[in-house]
Amino acid sequence: MYEKLIGSPQQDPFDALVDILAAADRYDFTLGVIPVAFVVALIVATVTSVSTPPMLAVAALVGGLAIVDACYLNPPVRDGGDQGPT
Questions:
Q1: What is the phi-psi region of residue 25: left when phi exceeds 0, alpha when psi lies from -120 to 50, beta otherwise?
Q2: How many domains does the chain divide into?
């Protein structure tokens, strides 16, 4: 459900979703991996006979690897301007 403002043109919700996803960058998707890993771990632990703590440990490992990748292996870089001392 969304609010329609009076006198404003209405945008299709699908077009709004496409605009949001087009504006997202690599780091937005990397941050999205972390909760998705935990949700998948809980679903797998519920559906299968695997206990929850090992699945949460795997999800924590996936989240940790995503953070290491985003912060240390492929850190954000400036698009210009002052790059610091040369």
A1: beta
A2: 1
